[in-house]
Amino acid sequence: GAVVSQHPSWVICKSGTSVKIECRSLDFQATTMFWYRQFPKQSLMLMATSNEGSKATYEQGVEKDKFLINHASLTLSTLTVTSAHPEDSSFYICGAQGVWTGGPYNEQFFGPGTRLTVL
Amino acid sequence: QKEVEQNSGPLSVPEGAIASLNCTYSDRGSQSFFWYRQYSGKSPELIMFIYSNGDKEDGRFTAQLNKASQYVSLLIRDSQPSDSATYLCAVSWDNAGNMLTFGGGTRLMVKP
Which residues of B touch A108 (CB under 8 A)? Predict the structure, then answer.
């Protein structure tokens, strides 16, 4: 399958700082990228969907001014957690999806995740 | 509100047995269904997808879909300790697999 990378894989920061997480599709062009958050022992919760060159669509309850998403190219999307607080500590996972060519389905490939700890 | 429900487990089975994982969903218009495996601290990896009623087999895995009952299951035959993980059911409203809604996951433990 296709490869999606995330950087950093883990980060610890002080409360009030901003953290940027990068998601890259290494061997395909990702027209759509998804950002998920996963708290311990819980499932993935979709935060937002972004299409290359367009503004991200945020899920209900997700603050767009706090979680800034940029999908400036077909291989890179970034999530910036602004003024992070301890309650933002979580496992952040990106999903990348290319153009659907009409096959059985359009698989979403996941990055390895970024573990954010806010002190 | 689209919901996907799974028993959180843990589901414990002996090595070599069949593990049966179940998932129900609320949106009758859902079109495609996915099973992911997630090891602790890792991101999910796709095991199978299904979009037609009935069974779909791939190696030791069989996915079963019943749209009338809004029910999808995953059977793992000859369970191995390496199958121990959390299994996530995901549902999409279209056949393209866009906008996945995940269930809470079922933790499977295969005992040697």
Answer: 97, 100
Contacts of A41 in chain B (CB under 8 A): 8
Per-residue pLDDT tens digits for B68-84: 999 999 999 999 999 99
B102 to A45: CB separation less than 8 angstroms, yes or no = yes
C-beta atoms surrounding B12 within 10 Å: 13
Could you tell me if B108 and B10 are in contact, meaning their C-beta atoms sit under 8 angstroms apart? Answer: yes
Binary contact (B101, A112; C-beta < 8 A): no
pLDDT tens, A48-57?
Answer: 999 888 889 9
* pLDDT band for position B96 (cuts 50, 70, 90): confident
A contact residues 6-35, partner B, Cβ 8 Å cutoff: 32, 34
Give the contacts of B12 (CB within 8 A, at least 6 positions apart): B109, B110, B111
